[in-house]
Amino acid sequence: MPFNLPIFLTWLRVALIPIFVAIFFLPPDLMSSRVANVTGATLFALAAVTDWLDGFLARRLGQTSAFGAFLDPVADKLIVAASLILLVELGRTEGWMAMIIIGREITISALREWMAEMGARKSVAVATIGKLKTAAQMFAILLLLYAAPIVPGFSTLMLGNIFMVVAVILTLWSMIYYLRMAAHEFSGKKIDV
């Protein structure tokens, strides 16, 4: 298993997950809910930045590896799933939206793995719709973690849930897109099930 700066940043993202979640369950005399919200949102934003940074550094420094390519999306999905479950637990978003997003992540990850085994991973490579889904999802989660008013008289939680609905729509749209791309690969090929 290689170890370099990009992989360190990815492992850091994984290591932040239990700390990030625990912050929201500390007793109020140790950390007020306002401080927990700001700290949690900051850690989530830091994780999002390291997600971009580790990929950038791996390419820039010539330190890409099969292990890094495996670990990076796993770390992303873990922190998103943990955040969504946390937000449902805190009553800040709806469980059905979290289930759709987490379910899609599992489905597309399995599809990519299967396509890689068939030698056709590029057919389900990240597309623009997937990047838009990720952006809407990250922004929604950040707003819902922060929770405090940003614009006077306008609920940050409501805005976060509007972006969450957008993320769910893009989630379903991107899942259909990837499934269609995979189906195109299957047509004309013998598939062993």
From TrEMBL:
The chain crosses the membrane at residues 6-26, 38-58, 124-148, 154-179. It is a multi-pass membrane protein. Its EC number is 2.7.8.5. InterPro entries: CDP-alcohol_PTase-I, CDP-OH_P_trans, CDP-OH_PTrfase_TM_dom, CDP_ALCOHOL_P_TRANSF_CS, Phosphatidylglycerol_P_synth. It is found in: Membrane. Pathway: Phospholipid metabolism; phosphatidylglycerol biosynthesis; phosphatidylglycerol from CDP-diacylglycerol: step 1/2. The keyword Transmembrane helix applies. GO terms for cellular component: membrane. Its main location: membrane. It comes from the Bacteria. One of its GO terms (biological process) is glycerophospholipid biosynthetic process. It catalyses: a CDP-1,2-diacyl-sn-glycerol + sn-glycerol 3-phosphate = a 1,2-diacyl-sn-glycero-3-phospho-(1'-sn-glycero-3'-phosphate) + CMP + H(+). Keywords: Lipid biosynthesis, Lipid metabolism, Membrane, Phospholipid biosynthesis, Phospholipid metabolism, Transferase, Transmembrane, Transmembrane helix. NCBIfam families: pgsA (TIGR00560). Belongs to the CDP-alcohol phosphatidyltransferase class-I family. This is CDP-diacylglycerol--glycerol-3-phosphate 3-phosphatidyltransferase. It comes from Crenobacter caeni.
